[in-house]
Write a sequence for this structure.
């Protein structure tokens, strides 16, 4: 937005020295400053979404040529947020780029007092085997003479923080395993 | 969301968020809109700039109150009494929208003679069984004539017609009674009633907005029902600037309800088969869940198409499309009852994905103690959290805990593509911006891995119980070789399966009207059908916001891209706009079709003067003037004869844990609520001197939970848990702002810094005929003790588990507590 008062007009036209000193004019910028560009200038803008509340603000994620996230801003095109973001949405960058984030598999063995790093493939195979074992041990075909084909030995919680398609996959998998204790934040 | 579902037909907000700007009045209650959904609140402010009146009713003065034209402090948990007072006013003064009520609601239906109201039974309805604490709702039914048609009295004179039952039911909700229960003075109630009435009718509309302040109660569904009745009486549903805005919490909470990861729902609001009903075969299931009239006559098409999507070529008519592969329910398998099942050793393995019940769960200590009984837990998240690290929480001894714990690192929304459904039912696709950090993967990647590995582990099995895994279709190979190489499944292919396709050709169906019940179509979620209507289009990725404010080419709103639900009601019975000012969808005589700025939520060429066919099934049973197409009779429900477990018309009950006795009825709390009377889940008694204050919970702008507590920018703004209390109580307890205080309930204790503020104010209410001054304490529900930059005890530690009977939601918004100066004892 433009300021309504043109400050430069208040300085005498012929006072070159004053104009340079006063600190209100473009020419106070050093040569170095003039060379600098905004972090996101020229960066690729990818249309994404805010992952916090359910208002559904559209975001623009600015990505450098080498694939690094530079910044996240509100998408001015959106009929919902029109470029705005709240404090949480404005901090989306820090959710993804954060030194406290856990980006490796952690495993805690029975009775252990610590986490240890384990390979992803090992963890996935171990989990698949545990799911099979628990399912096979707890699967019930009938209860009180009625077919139930379910297991009460496995429960799943989650859905509201990840995508529609991911919910569909999780539901399809859990239903096919016979899991019925499925829930997410919608109830909670 | 059966409060909205049983009233109007669908469990979703009726409002397109930007349409709030068209309201003449907005009642915000059960929501701190400005702080919890700040960006959507700009439309409230736009409405205000255009001259609309904003009303806020809330236990706490917030930034929403600060910009409202009228703010009314209320005792937490008494909204049914308050809204009931408004209903009473509207009915007693005859200031409801008479043409709308007559044409679009079930006001004229006559209820059977066997029905008895709370007026007759001191707070109970007929059909209550005190042994099982459940209702047999048979006596709530409408009277039928010899042909089976509902008896109606269009003159609205019959004493048992719905409008007169409502009149009688709410007659005792006088302004004076409302004050005794809620603490809202009569003049404030009448002022608000006047605002709503003046801003409703042909020329003007009022919108309601609520959030979890209305849902997290043992009568939460009935809170929404009361608002629904009021909005139907005022004629505001289906109209621009009207409706009920349900402000939902998490980014995809609507999507996770629609394409449900909820125990009792299949995608598209098809009920999960239950052994407690007679649904052992597909024929029985369809008989039970196909409605004779209205849109749900289509249930067989949607269910059989879903089974085809799940089990592909294996699902054939001869095996009932593999219906028996679906597990059957045997009880309430929702999260909180499951927590007890975990504690009791029934649950052995637990997936926790993007949630943190160890901090944000109710009775959060019980949740973590229950997890100690698990054989294994798998947590998919981006950060360490109180749930996955339950074994090293304060007071736990890891050397006694046998649970095997896996943490799998999750990609964030920026690191993957896919769809989320926002609070106005709008599907929006997000592109992938960057590669996941480190070993992080999308949730889809993990589910794909699990499914394919389990298919391999069971590959040689001939056991019938393993057939669903082997027969489940799972073909989501990514078309992009770069993603395929990393094993990333194509979520676009998943969305296309949700949309549905013709099984013979593999071509996409254009929408749910293409679906068939003969196995020739497959569809993973019928309400989303139309989102990928052909081989190349993904309407969730639509990003053209030009044109009307309805922005029909920005994303895709279910059903069929309709923005405002029930918008047939924006026109009068003859199909003409109620007024030029509130023109939205209307009948175009020259083209013989419905038209307007939105997609009509009505059969496009069904003329307004189309008569209902007596005795007909499906949509033919509705006339061209019946706007609520999902309902049996096409009408909005002032009275719900079937579908709710606790009341056909809402009655005020006290929260399970309350500081007063119920002034309205002898029945203290919801007679059908879910209680768990166990030593590990104790409740405070009603009017318990040991817990004399009301405790309410809320969220703050800068925090969600684990997704914000590690972010330095946000932790700096809201670094720690606090507890808000009024100056009068603070003086009495010797507490100053910044002091440590301990808040306690029978479940446990928590400590926090005190914030003494006039935003909380004492209220004068009545209990057992005696006037009483009460204090309310507010605590943000965002923190956890163990990890992260922003820390603090979780208020979840104070909340025992008690449930609404319809949806098993907990009562976190109102309970009772004690407060004292100083820190708590270590656990």
């Amino acid at each position: 937005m433009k300021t309504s008062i043109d400050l430069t007009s208040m300085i005498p036209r012929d006072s070159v020295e004053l104009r340079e000193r006063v600190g209100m004019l473009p020419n106070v910028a050093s040569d170095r400053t003039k060379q600098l560009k905004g972090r996101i200038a020229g960066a690729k803008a990818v249309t994404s979404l805010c992952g916090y509340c359910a208002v559904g603000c559209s975001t623009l994620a600015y990505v450098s040529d080498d694939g690094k996230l530079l910044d996240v801003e509100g998408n001015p095109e959106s009929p919902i947020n029109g470029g705005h973001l709240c404090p949480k949405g404005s901090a989306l960058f820090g959710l993804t780029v954060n030194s406290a984030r856990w980006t490796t598999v952690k495993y805690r063995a029975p009775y252990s007092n610590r986490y240890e790093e384990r390979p992803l493939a090992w963890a996935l195979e171990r989990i698949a085997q545990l799911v099979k074992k628990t399912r096979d041990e707890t699967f019930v075909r009938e209860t009180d003479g009625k077919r139930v084909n379910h297991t009460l030995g496995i429960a799943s919680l989650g859905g509201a923080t990840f995508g529609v398609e991911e919910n569909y996959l999780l539901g399809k998998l859990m239903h096919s395993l016979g899991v019925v204790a499925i829930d997410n934040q919608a109830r909670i | 969301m059966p409060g909205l579902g049983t009233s109007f037909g669908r469990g979703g907000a009726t409002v397109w968020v930007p349409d709030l700007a068209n309201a003449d009045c907005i009642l915000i209650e059960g929501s701190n809109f400005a702080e919890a959904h700040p960006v959507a609140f700009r439309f409230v402010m736009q409405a205000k700039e255009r001259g609309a009146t904003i009303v806020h009713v809330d236990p706490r003065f917030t930034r929403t109150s600060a910009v409202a034209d009228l703010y009314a402090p209320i005792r937490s948990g008494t909204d049914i009494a308050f809204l009931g007072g408004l209903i009473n006013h509207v009915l007693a003064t005859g200031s409801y929208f008479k043409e709308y009520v007559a044409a679009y609601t079930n006001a004229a239906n006559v209820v059977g003679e066997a029905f008895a109201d709370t007026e007759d039974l001191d707070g109970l309805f007929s059909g209550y069984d005190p042994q099982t604490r459940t209702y047999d709702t048979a006596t709530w039914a409408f009277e039928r004539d010899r042909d089976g048609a509902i008896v109606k009295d269009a003159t609205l004179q019959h004493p048992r017609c719905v409008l007169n039952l409502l009149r009688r039911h709410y007659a005792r909700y006088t302004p004076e009674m409302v004050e005794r229960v809620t603490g809202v003075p009569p003049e404030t109630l009448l002022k608000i009633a006047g605002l709503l009435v003046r801003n409703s009718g042909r020329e003007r509309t009022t919108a309601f907005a609520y959030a979890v302040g209305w849902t997290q109660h043992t009568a939460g569904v009935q809170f929404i029902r009361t608002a629904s009745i009021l909005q139907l009486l005022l004629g505001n549903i289906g109209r621009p600037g009207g409706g009920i805005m349900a402000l939902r919490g998490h980014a995809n909470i609507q999507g996770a309800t629609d394409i449900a990861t909820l125990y009792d729902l299949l995608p598209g609001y098809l009920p999960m088969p239950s052994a407690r009903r007679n649904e052992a075969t597909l024929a029985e299931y369809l008989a039970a869940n196909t409605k004779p009239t209205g849109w749900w006559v289509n249930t067989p098409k949607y269910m059989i198409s879903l089974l085809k999507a799940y089990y592909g070529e294996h699902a054939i008519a001869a095996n009932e499309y593999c219906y028996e592969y679906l597990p059957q329910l045997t009880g309430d398998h929702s999260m909180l009852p499951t927590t007890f099942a975990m504690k009791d050793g029934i649950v052995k393995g637990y997936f926790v994905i993007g949630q943190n019940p160890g901090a944000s769960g109710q009775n959060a200590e019980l949740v973590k103690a229950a997890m100690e009984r698990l054989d294994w837990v798998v947590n998919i998240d981006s950060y360490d959290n109180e749930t996955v690290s339950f074994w090293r929480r304060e007071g736990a001894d890891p050397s006694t805990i046998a649970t095997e714990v896996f943490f799998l690192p999750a990609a964030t929304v920026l690191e993957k593509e896919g769809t989320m459904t926002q609070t106005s039912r709008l599907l929006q696709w997000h592109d992938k911006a960057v590669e996941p950090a480190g070993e992080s993967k999308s949730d889809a990647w993990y589910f794909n891995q699990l499914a394919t590995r389990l298919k391999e582990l069971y590959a040689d099995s001939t056991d019938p119980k393993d057939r669903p895994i082997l027969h489940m279709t799972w073909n989501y190979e990514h078309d992009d070789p770069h993603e395929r190489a990393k094993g990333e499944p194509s979520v676009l292919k998943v969305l296309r399966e949700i949309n549905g396709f013709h099984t013979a050709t593999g071509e996409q169906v254009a929408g749910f009207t293409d679906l068939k019940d003969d196995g020739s179509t497959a569809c993973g979620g019928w309400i989303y059908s139309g989102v990928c209507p052909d081989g190349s289009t993904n309407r969730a990725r639509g990003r053209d916001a030009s044109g009307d404010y309805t922005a029909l080419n920005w994303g895709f709103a279910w059903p069929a891209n309709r923005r405002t639900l029930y918008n047939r009601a924006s026109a009068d019975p003859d199909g003409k706009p109620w007024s030029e000012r509130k023109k939205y969808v209307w009948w175009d005589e020259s083209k013989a079709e419905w038209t307007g700025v939105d997609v009509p939520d009505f059969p496009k060429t069904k003329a307004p003067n189309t008569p209902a066919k007596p005795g007909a099934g499906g949509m033919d049973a509705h006339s061209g003037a019946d706007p609520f197409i999902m309902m049996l009779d096409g009408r909005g429900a002032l009275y719900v004869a079937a579908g709710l477990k606790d009341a056909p018309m809402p009655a005020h009950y006290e929260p399970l844990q309350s500081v007063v006795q119920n002034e309205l009825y002898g029945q203290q709390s919801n007679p059908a609520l879910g209680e768990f009377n166990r030593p590990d889940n104790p409740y405070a008694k009603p009017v318990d001197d040991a817990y004399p204050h009301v405790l309410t919970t809320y969220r703050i702008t800068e925090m969600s939970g684990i997704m914000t507590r590690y972010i330095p920018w946000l932790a700096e703004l809201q670094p720690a848990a606090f507890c808000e209390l009024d100056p009068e109580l603070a003086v009495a307890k010797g507490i100053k702002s910044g002091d440590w205080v301990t808040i306690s309930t029978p479940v446990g204790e928590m400590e926090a810094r005190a914030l003494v503020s006039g935003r909380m104010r004492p209220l004068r209410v009545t209990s057992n005929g005696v006037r009483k001054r009460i204090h309310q304490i507010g605590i943000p529900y965002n923190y956890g003790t163990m990890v992260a930059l922003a820390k603090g005890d979780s208020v979840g530690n104070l909340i025992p588990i008690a449930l609404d009977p319809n949806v098993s939601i907990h009562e976190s918004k109102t309970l009772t507590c004690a407060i004292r100066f100083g820190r708590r004892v270590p656990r």
Observations:
- Strands of chain A lie at 44-49, 58-63, 69-74, 106-108, 116-117, 139-143, 146-157, 179-183.
- Chain A touches chain B through 115 residues (CB under 8 Å).
- The mean pLDDT of chain A is 90.
- The radius of gyration of chain A is 28 Å.
